[in-house]
Amino acid sequence: MNGSPELVCPAGNLPALKTAVDEGANAVYMGFKDITNARRFAGLNFTPERAREGIDYAHRQGCRVFCAINTYPQNDGWPLWTRAVDQAADLGVDALILADLGLLEYASRRHPDLPRHLSVQGSATSAEALHFYHRHFDIRRAVLPRVLSLDQVKQLAAASPVALEVFGFGSLCIMVEGRCYLSSYLTGESPNTHGACSPAAHVRWEEQDGGLSSRLNGVLIDRYGPGEQAGYPTLCKGRFRVDDELYHAIEEPTSLNTLELLPELQALGIAAVKIEGRQRSPAYVREVTRVWRQALDRLSRTPSTFQPDPAWQRALGNLSEGTTTTLGAYERRWK
């Protein structure tokens, strides 16, 4: 740790896991190939065999592995979620990332010695909520929702009974941590129930008049002109005509980037910074992990004079949604 927060990086698949480990992640987080984790996309996630290989690889290099089982179990699928918890325990992960109260209770009863982290999907935004999860389920860490200002994070850090993890970089969305049903409105599946926003089976791309259109289950999400960069069609980031104006009516594509806040986060005693992006490529994981490893190492050496390197900001900007970054709610002045 060397006095700075630890770096927790995404591992959407085995190549991404190994890349994050090689580039200096302190921990990686992964999920299984089913609806128990909130990033269920084709080509992503782990079979038990691949998970075991990845855990062995990480552990040999001193990197910990967290398993995200952070969707909300459905009434007719409870055994699937408990089986995932048991499977993660058998594989030797270093912590479970959980959100559902029933699953937290199951994990704490069946595997009391396996550390439990409260997922960002748990939406704990008050000290009382953190005390509740700690008292009933003995959580070791909580991932804070991306809706809190820095002042609110400061208040929680002063009163929290557990270590805190905050998001440092990655795409932003209106899924206020496990509470978005927009995708389900069009496809019947949402991130917090089936692990996928805009499931690929419902996505269609159409070339028209030299441009490109994207549809989700038949609904037009966006049209792109020749040469215009196209984004994955999610309902929240589509462009729609409202009062004769065409624009991103719900949310602009952008990414969170908190490099400049690192000294303040360190001073608050934040235990870990999380990088979003299990759905992104190993190349993305390599570049983001490299930048954040360098930043945290510099923070550790020179905390009082730390400044983000302009080259880091340029690299992260190129990997950001819409090539724009923001401090998001961290700099929010209203409450």
UniProtKB/TrEMBL annotation:
<dbReference type="GO" id="GO:0051539">
    <property type="term" value="F:4 iron, 4 sulfur cluster binding"/>
</dbReference>
<feature type="binding site">
    <location>
        <position position="197"/>
    </location>
    <ligand>
        <name>[4Fe-4S] cluster</name>
    </ligand>
</feature>
<feature type="binding site">
    <location>
        <position position="180"/>
    </location>
    <ligand>
        <name>[4Fe-4S] cluster</name>
    </ligand>
</feature>
<dbReference type="GO" id="GO:0046872">
    <property type="term" value="F:metal ion binding"/>
</dbReference>
<keyword id="KW-0411">Iron-sulfur</keyword>
<protein>
    <recommendedName>
        <fullName>Ubiquinone biosynthesis protein UbiU</fullName>
    </recommendedName>
</protein>
<comment type="similarity">
    <text>Belongs to the peptidase U32 family. UbiU subfamily.</text>
</comment>
<keyword id="KW-0831">Ubiquinone biosynthesis</keyword>
<dbReference type="InterPro" id="IPR043692">
    <property type="entry name" value="UbiU"/>
</dbReference>
<feature type="binding site">
    <location>
        <position position="173"/>
    </location>
    <ligand>
        <name>[4Fe-4S] cluster</name>
    </ligand>
</feature>
<feature type="binding site">
    <location>
        <position position="236"/>
    </location>
    <ligand>
        <name>[4Fe-4S] cluster</name>
    </ligand>
</feature>
<keyword id="KW-0004">4Fe-4S</keyword>
<comment type="function">
    <text>Required for O(2)-independent ubiquinone (coenzyme Q) biosynthesis. Together with UbiV, is essential for the C6-hydroxylation reaction in the oxygen-independent ubiquinone biosynthesis pathway.</text>
</comment>
<dbReference type="GO" id="GO:0006744">
    <property type="term" value="P:ubiquinone biosynthetic process"/>
</dbReference>
<dbReference type="Pfam" id="PF01136">
    <property type="entry name" value="Peptidase_U32"/>
</dbReference>
<keyword id="KW-0479">Metal-binding</keyword>
<dbReference type="InterPro" id="IPR051454">
    <property type="entry name" value="RNA/ubiquinone_mod_enzymes"/>
</dbReference>
<comment type="pathway">
    <text>Cofactor biosynthesis; ubiquinone biosynthesis.</text>
</comment>
<keyword id="KW-0408">Iron</keyword>
<dbReference type="InterPro" id="IPR001539">
    <property type="entry name" value="Peptidase_U32"/>
</dbReference>
<comment type="subunit">
    <text>Forms a heterodimer with UbiV.</text>
</comment>
